[in-house]
Each structure stands twice: as C-alpha cells, then as structure tokens.
Write a structure and sequence with these properties.
The structure is a homotrimer. By secondary structure, the first copy, chain A, is α/β, with parallel strands linked by helices. Chain A is built from eight helices and eight strands; from the N terminus they run H-E-H-E-H-E-H-E-H-E-H-H-H-E-E-E. In chain A, strands 2-1-3-4-5-6-7-8 form an eight-stranded mixed sheet, sandwiched between helices. In chain A, helix 3 packs parallel to helix 4. The radius of gyration of chain A is 16 Å and the shape is globular.
Chain lengths: ~200, ~200, ~200
Amino acid sequence: MSNDYAILLGKVRENKPLVHHITNYVTVNDCANVTLGIGASPVMADAIDEAADIAAIASSVVLNMGTLNERTIPSMIAAGKAANDKGIPVVFDPVGAGASKLRNDTAARIIGEVKLSVLRGNISEIKFVAGLQSATKGVDASESDMTDTSGAGQLAKGLADKLGCVVVISGAVDVVSDGSKIVLSKTGIPCWGTYQARDVCVHR
Amino acid sequence: MSNDYAILLGKVRENKPLVHHITNYVTVNDCANVTLGIGASPVMADAIDEAADIAAIASSVVLNMGTLNERTIPSMIAAGKAANDKGIPVVFDPVGAGASKLRNDTAARIIGEVKLSVLRGNISEIKFVAGLQSATKGVDASESDMTDTSGAGQLAKGLADKLGCVVVISGAVDVVSDGSKIVLSKTGIPCWGTYQARDVCVHR
Amino acid sequence: MSNDYAILLGKVRENKPLVHHITNYVTVNDCANVTLGIGASPVMADAIDEAADIAAIASSVVLNMGTLNERTIPSMIAAGKAANDKGIPVVFDPVGAGASKLRNDTAARIIGEVKLSVLRGNISEIKFVAGLQSATKGVDASESDMTDTSGAGQLAKGLADKLGCVVVISGAVDVVSDGSKIVLSKTGIPCWGTYQARDVCVHR
C-alpha cells in the first residue's frame, strides 16, 4: 500500500495537475499549500464569469461549502457541471450540512445537479447527506455522532453505492468506501472529525 | 486571577461553545485556530441566507468589520439581532472605524441596532466610536493616539457605561471596563495596538 | 546595493506607509504579514463603497486579481483611479492572465484605465499582457514559458517602455526593467515562478 501510494504521488508530481478549488476563505491558504505540497497546482476561482472556464481546463474540481454564499453557490454548480461535461472528477465537501437551511438546500442541490467522484465529510455531515438523523453543530461533527461510529462503514458503503462515487468519512478512524469495499484508516487523531484544513486532502 | 482564568478556560473546554464569526478574510484562519485553541468550536458563516440561523444556535457571535462589504454588512446586522433575540452575547470589533465613511456608518449602524456585550478596538477606533476626535490611519491605531493613552481608562469606562457593555481598548497596555471598574493589563507589546489577529481573543 | 536597500528599508520603517491591498483571499494573510514585516501598515478594503476613499489616504495601492469577481473588479478600478488622481503609486499583479476570458478582460481593463507604477507577474502572465502568445496554466507560469526565458529581459523592457512603468517578471531569475535598464536578480528559487504569496513583495 505504501508503495502504491509512492507511485501515485510520483505521478502527481510528474503531471502537476491543476486543481480548481471553490472553497471557504478560512482554510483556503492551507488548501493551496497542501495542493502545492503534493506536487499539484492549485487555482482558486469562484466568480460565476469564469468558474466553468477554469473547471474545464482543470484536472479536478473541489467544491467546499464552508463559507458558501449567494455569489459562490451558482459558481459551484457551474464549475461542477463544466467538469462533468469533460469527465473531470469532482470532489464535494458538504461543510456544515445539517446546520442551516442554506447548507442543507445547497448540499441537496449540488448532489442533485453534479455527478460526484468523491464525497467527503465528517460523520454528522455524511449522515445528513444520507438522509439520516444527524446532530451537526456548526461545522464540527457532534459528540454523539463521533462516539457512535459503529455504523459508519455501512453508511459510507450504502451512500457510495447510491451516489455512484467514493464516500470518505473523516474522523479518528477514517472510513472510505466505493460502494463495494470498505477501508478503515486508523489515523488516531480524533480532532480530525472537527474543523481542520483537510478539505482537499483525501489521502494524507 | 490566574486561578480564575484557569477555571474559566476549563469551562470553555468542557462546554465547547460554538462561536459564530462574521469576520474579515485576512485573519480569519487565525481566528478559527485561536477559537479551537481555547477549546471552543468556530463557525464562519456570512451569507444573509443563514447568518441569523447560525447565530441562533451559537453560544456567542463575533462581528468584525475588517473587510466589510455590501454583502456582509446586512449579515452582521441579522446575526446580531438574532443573537439579541436569544440572549446570546455579541462581541463587536469596529476595525478601521474613522478611516472611511462606510466604516463610520457601519459602526454607527451596528451599535445602534445591535445590543453588544463586548466592544473591542484599538484606541483610535474606540475614540471614534465614543464620538471623540480621532486620527485613525487605516486599521492601525495612530501614533498620536497610541502615545497619549492617559485618558484611555476614563474613555473605556464612559463608553461602557453609555453602551451598557464591556469595552476593551487593545494596546501596549490593554484597558478593560464594564462601566464601573477599570482594569489595566500590561502586556508590554505595543504592536498589539496595530493590526494583528487578536480580534476574537479578548483575554490572552 | 545592499546598502541602498538598507537605507530604503529604514525609510519604510520610519514612515510606516499605509499600503492599500485589493487582493485575493488565498495569500491575503501573508500579504498583510509581509507588509507589517517590512515596517509598513496594511489595509485590506475591497468594498466599492470605500475603495476610492481608502486608496486616497494610502501611500500605495496594490491590485491583485487572484480571486477577482464581479464585486471586487469595480473596486480595483475605483481604487486605481483614486490613487492616480492623487499621484499615489499603483502596483498591479495580473494573476492568471491568460487563463480565462474574465482574467484577460480584467487585466486589459485595469491596464487601460489605471496608470501603473509597477506591473508584476510570472513569465506567462507578462507574456499575455504584452500581447504575445503564452501558455498560462491556472495561476502558475507554464513549463515551456519557464524554460525558455531568453527573451524575458527584452520582454520586460519593451513592456515597461510601452506602459511607462516598472515591469517585474518573477521566476528562478527575476527580471526587472524600467524601460531602459534591465536588472536580473538570481534568487535561485524556480518555484517563485509559481503560486506563492509574493504578490506584495517586489524586493525580498
């Protein structure tokens, strides 16, 4: 596995893929630096007048609704659709899904209008997206959701199968599923269920 | 005092309060990390379509007008009013008050429409808010204001009494008043009168 | 030269000039800290309702179109014009020029409507601005442009002469020209042709 990872990372460094982020202004600097750190090239562009143009020349598109607003939501949809048209993978991070009507509606809209390659969230956000009862508190996973993770593997697998994408649930133990297999990654860092600049970093 | 502080900090860590920030995009990452660092949970949400909803589930609301604009000013008012309706404390940092008509008008509007628990600024900003002559230069306290701090205690006390809130004047010596007592905190760091990511950090 | 630099830096520290940035939200925190680090005073203000007011009281204005949008483009034009009216120098960084129609149009508009003192970009951006064929990839200089820098000196000189300003091309070797002289600065750091928080930092 560590050898596979080295090969994959080598390919990233060789190809320097352009990663188009429409993301929050809190962790955006970290997102850019992480992207540079793995050898890729970040571009942050959230104006409706260029979101689709930039997505169309990117190697992947990351949509993160951490500080969503009426100006950037249409840009996320436009970038996602432009990526879909070209077969460019889209990663979606439904930050704070469950915490406000705006976030709930936006998460539902993006999942409805954009075909995702990867959906990544904490346990509360993924539970919300899966239509289960959740107890999101702001942008952090709730205590109760973080303690009771017994069903996380099945949750990820079921949602991945339903959406036809990879689902990642971040936490002390990361859960990854493509709809058939479930992989657990024991990072041993519980705070990764809470607010950190890991939005662009599926592997770490 | 240091013992009281330890008890208070322990309570923060125990309760993990959600702190809703509508703040500038310059120091926002530091604000989030400081909030996490003391054991609280930050959420940054400035869209008018969710500002009141998020404020209503928060334990406190921080309004900082560092990079205010026509989109976020109504969100600050909405969040402040929603917090007031629920008895949730509101901290206001009138960054750069005195430097432009927009900042002057916005500071006046927030103070007029939102009941504050804490008003925090540098000496130039607080002088402006108090209706005194000030010489704000951008978002830093002016040299003249920083040198002549003799009246800072009375200024803080008078304004705190008038607004019915705690007033904090940041500088080499921090001045805090609730309208009756005046407390000085000799931090010995003059640059704290200038632009730093201390917006969310009343104690440090 | 190093002595001249020390004298210039001493003057900055003595005068603490106010530097008004309308810049991207990715590197904005670094821009503020670099400005503070050299002894100047940063102010970030991008609302159309204050952009001209703040520019008019600043010692210099920095326009960086890294995360441009329909709200901030008019603010950049307004700040640039207000600076021009008062003889305040304007630095322009056409981030990602060549990567989208919005960026191309905005770069052309700013250069057409605002008199610049300094134009700073990577080789791809400057080639685009000069009307030459370029291969911008997102906000990084392209491989081909970075490898073939033979004409960079003449490019900078010609464009500086045409625009009547200093042109800086950042890269492993920085190229600076005022339209008559060409100065090369061997920093030896190739990645400075790519995305870094150097937008406000002409000398380093």
